Amino acid sequence: MIKPILSDSKSTPLHPHLNIVKDIQEPALHTQYRLRFLGRLHNKLYTISVKEVSYIVVEESTTLLITQNSKRIFIQLSLDQIEKQVHPKYYFRINRKVLLHINSIIELLVVSKSRIKVTLADKSQHLVSRAKNGEFKEWLDL
């Protein structure tokens, strides 16, 4: 026999696990992304806003932050660390060595069925890895 449900403000929820799921999801909505980087150029330290970053590249085991005005700043973080700290809406890692900002893209060239060449604001060109090709296209289409 089915009994009617009486509503009162002190009753327990029918699905107590729903609150747990909500608690798990909420921190993801409030993720704090990095606002700036501390880098070094010769003997000077610089703070660079993430808005000024064109892309980040690894060259000879050194992580370099390239600004919109083409300054090359050394930073003490790995590309893996940086990728986790920047907003995925604006930054995408196209291959093992390059993490770029959406606004730094000047041109996209289809090289083959599974390869895209990206030209950035400083005229540098980088290939999107085959593994990231589909994900990169989706990211561009957000």
TrEMBL record:
InterPro entries: LytTR_DNA-bd_dom. Pfam families: LytTR. One of its GO terms (molecular function) is DNA binding. Residues 37-142 form the HTH LytTR-type domain. This is LytTR family transcriptional regulator.
